[in-house]
Design a protein that fits this description.
Shape: elongated
Strand order of the largest sheet: 2-1-3-4-6-5
Bound molecules: zinc ion
Largest sheet: 6 strands, mixed
Number of strands: 6
Helix content: 25-40%
Number of domains: 2
InterPro entries: PGBDSf (IPR036366), Zn_M74/Hedgehog-like (IPR009045)
Strand content: 5-15%
Distance between the termini: 33 Å
Structural class: alpha+beta
Protein name: Peptidoglycan binding domain protein
CATH architecture of the largest domain: 2-Layer Sandwich
CATH topology of the largest domain: Muramoyl-pentapeptide Carboxypeptidase, domain 2
CATH class of the largest domain: Alpha Beta
Radius of gyration: 22 Å
Amino acid sequence: MKDRIKIVQAELNRRGISVGTVDGIIGTKTKTALNSIDGVSTGWPNSRKVIAFIQIMCRDKGIEVGKVDGYWGPQTEFAFDQLKHVIQFGELPSPWRDNENPEKRNPNNWPAESELDQFYGKVGENQVRLQLPYPHRLAWDKRKVIHSFYCHEKVRDSLCRVLTQVLDHYGMDEIKRLRLDLWGGCLNVRKKRGGSSYSTHSWGIALDYDSANNKLKWGRDRASFSSSEYDKWWEFWEAEGWVSLGRTKNYDWMHVQAVIV
Ligand SMILES: [Zn+2]
């Protein structure tokens, strides 16, 4: 909530409706300022006024936000993310959904979830060792460095290409800073967390990275991998047809899989 209020206060100041210090706290000045805004109802609670003003800011910057109603729905959440990007970088994030070319985006013909047995065989089988282009650290024990892990034979070459590009683009220092080496596992024969079917990890065709900062139920507002610093990281995966659940479903940002959704 505090970061929302700060953005609102900064914008009110910018619009010449002085609220004083940008401190993330709704004081008298901020309240008065919000009440003077067209479209913000004075009868609303403060939190709803703040959200409504964020919606107005989005609308004014041409970001699709829907109705200015002061409610924090998925559209407002997504619009807010775009708004923050505009504030920070002066432009909208590059629309990664627009350059989807179905042929290009699945060059390895990864199967759908219903075709996994047919394409990959039985869970836990056909595993090979991948020699890593750059060393990984175990996410659950960062002192342990690994240079290889097991994955399905059909994904190994693609994985190697992705990680080689990551290394070439970011370099080892950036990889560590962005925690692109914090490996949370690949092959693991188990049921989905919160589900009854096998996890894609059971075939060794999914990977998790930096699980502590990209928890299963976190969305764009919390998951570190949703920030624009990771755009290239995801582009390398997506160019090989790998699917990020974060980018497509906005949960499980740690996870990337060779299965289309
Ligand atoms: Zn996973």
